[in-house]
Amino acid sequence: MYKYDQYDQTIVDTRVEEFREQVARRLAGELSEDQFKPLRLMNGLYLQLHAYMLRVAIPYGTLDGRQMRMLAHIARTYDKGYGHFTTRQNIQYNWIELKDTPDILAELATVEMHAIQTSGNCIRNISSDQFAGAAADEVTDPRPWAELLRQWSTFHPEFSYLPRKFKICVIAADEDRAAMRLHDIGIQLTTNAAGEIGAAIYVGGGMGRTPMIAPLIKDFVPIDDLLSYVEACLRVYNRYGRRDNIYKARIKILIHEIGADEYRRQVEEEWAHVKTLGLDPPRAEFDRIAAMFAPPAFDAATPDTLDRSDPDFALWVDQNVKPHKQPGYAIATISLKPVGGIPGDATAEQIELMADLAERYSFDELRVTHAQNIVLPHVRKADLHALWQALDAAGLATPNLDLISDIIACPGLDYCSLANARSIPLAQKIATRFSSIERQRDLGELKLKISGCINACGHHHAGHIGILGVDRKGTENYQLLLGGSGAEDASLGKITGPGFDEDGIVDAIERTVETYRAVRTHGERFLDTYRRVGIEPFKEAIYG
Amino acid sequence: MKIATGNDLATGDVVWWDGAGWSRHVEDAVDVGDGGAALIAREDAARRVNGAYVIDATETPHGPRPAHIKDRIRARGPTVRLDLNVAPADAAAGSWVI
Ligand code: SF4
């Protein structure tokens, strides 16, 4: 885990005090909302449907027990006893009072956390693979690079007022668990023929109104040049990205308009110049950061076997536990999707328990996933049963990872002022309709994602099944999309046809999955079948 | 009828213009007629409300009911957490919103 040095701490502490003063001036009536709004947004504070909402950054989704416990403390002390883990690997609090915000930020700063750059047209929290440092298939741990990018992008003077917000993702495995190609810049660390580490750079992906999968812009940037190359990518965007039309301001539109080849050419030209500026950090600085992500002291003698005699435990292992690179260890995902629950929500008590369990069983490490679950990355196989028992007692052992009830859902119209329709009740209805775990497992991997408006925070374009809430003459209506994927086989879902009301969409999903069951061949996932047979059989079943 | 709503500056709570001040309860909202814009300008300038706007509502025996679902959810609270609603004991809150 990265530890703040005195510069990091000073930056964050200074920002808290600056914001304390700004809040005081707003409360005293010295600042209007128009003056104050950009200041609060720079500190992650939104005004939502019911109250102020505070978005706290969790860099690349990694945190330790002390930080997790602080998140629980804030939920209990300043909010209504819970928090919402988001598809950006962050946490949001829905009921924050403006007057409390400086104190909350001061408390967060004591555990090296903040809400800086969780809003605004700047480089947002860097996202990464939730299995980083634990996955058997990674070429290196991507987090030191994500941390380097975090430091580079924090208060970057040139990139604080970009044409639009900017999201960067770093992974280091062929299996994409972080929707890398749906980011403004997706970085895949890889090796060349000589075994040297470098980065494949994808630019111009994103969801929202105009979803796009990022094209490959450069297949191999030597790792020591990564920052200068990314700087060049941003510079070209900052210069030519549109500022006249918010719907055309993202980098994906620029690349779409000028073409990937022309963009690549301009980046190369810019890079030739940027490289001479000495932006790339010396190796020693990278090594200093990387040392903080050194693997924990694994016990080489711990047995690599598992007692699966408890069937409920075995079910959870089969669904929620993944192989670890270290023999004798495993990666456990805690599902925040109990049937009928609110995807991504956790109570203060649950957050605290997860902190305790991380300290006890996972070398004090937790990860937040973009699918709104929590990962304990380094658990001894010998401890898995005890871990499962503790989770089960707290309602945190739902064995549904990547199944139809493991739904991504944005806050939707229940909380979000931009929403057209509610997302959460739909997720609850679908999960309840498919609550039988046998049925879910029979359907296999099926990623269902719901957004309450075209902004696509719920990643509906990338769902094997996606749902988009729209406003039809003042009533909620839902469009169904099929065939999307945020993984290494990234694709965008297609709309099936006319939308549905709340009950109608649940029935349409039922008909969709039954069609899949009827036409699948052995071993085919829903997505594979869809790709083989196309949308027509599904449309026929849904509307026929 | 037309009613005015916004958020409390310090707490962020949803509030409704009740003729003399800002109430937490939509039932207290009064018809602002054509005077909404002037009212909001005055109250905003005095920092007594944040982000206020005027909406359509229908008069019912139990008070005004906002025309749009978004404002009905604002009036009550999230439909998925009735325990956190403005009137948590109100068993009819869910159906009132929809
Ligand atoms: S997708 Fe729309 S409704 Fe959902 S959280 Fe994002 S902005 Fe709000």
Question: What is shown here, in short?
Answer:
The model of chain A has no long low-confidence stretch (mean pLDDT 97). Chain A has 17 helices and 20 strands. In chain A, the strands form four sheets. In chain A, strands 1-2-5-4-13 form a five-stranded antiparallel β-sheet.
Give the SSE layout.
The complex is a heterodimer of chains A (544) and B (98).
Chain A: H1 6-27, H2 33-41, E1 45-47, E2 52-56, E3 62-63, H3 65-78, E4 82-85, E5 91-96, H4 101-109, E6 127-128, H5 143-153, E7 168-171, E8 185-191, E9 197-203, E10 216-222, H6 226-240, H7 251-258, H8 260-274, H9 283-291, H10 311-320, E11 321-323, E12 329-334, E13 345-347, H11 348-361, E14 366-368, E15 374-380, H12 384-393, E16 408-409, H13 424-433, H14 437-443, E17 448-451, E18 465-472, E19 475-482, E20 494-495, H15 502-519, H16 526-533, H17 536-543
Parallel strand pairs in A: 6-7, 7-8, 16-17, 17-18
Antiparallel strand pairs in A: 1-2, 2-5, 3-14, 4-5, 4-13, 8-9, 9-10, 11-12, 12-15, 14-15, 18-19, 19-20
Chain B: E1 2-7, E2 14-17, E3 22-23, H1 36-45, E4 50-60, E5 63-66, H2 69-76, H3 93-97
Antiparallel strand pairs in B: 1-2, 1-4, 2-3, 4-5
The structure holds iron/sulfur cluster (SF4).
